[in-house]
Description:
- By secondary structure, this protein is of the alpha+beta class.
- The chain has helices at about 5-20, 80-85, and strands at about 25-35, 40-50, 50-65, 65-75, 95.
- The protein has one domain (about 5-100): TATA-Binding Protein, CATH 3.30.310.110.
- It is about 20% helix and about 40% strand.
- The chain is globular.
- InterPro entries: XisI (IPR014968), XisI-like_sf (IPR035943).
Amino acid sequence: MDKLNFYRQIVKEVVTQYSKLRPSHGNIRLDTIFDESQDRYALMQTGWDRGKRVRGNLIYLILSGEKVIIEYDGIESGITQDLIAQGIAEEDIILAFVSPQENKIIA
């Protein structure tokens, strides 16, 4: 399997694992969004909590070239270490939400 397809499989597996978690309160649904044609992968939350509407991204990743770009990571512990543990090379992960000067992954 080539590197891009390998990374694509890992990203989908990690996002799917997070979609199986349930929030500790509220009536919130977690939906995976996988667009392989553009290599965009997301985990969305929608629902209600304490009388207020909840909606938005929890995770948003892009595959570009042979890099995994984390555009948004709203997971408390972060997903970077999960991606690395599954086989994505640390040097192939870019944290887009961190300035380029600070973009170093802390293991």
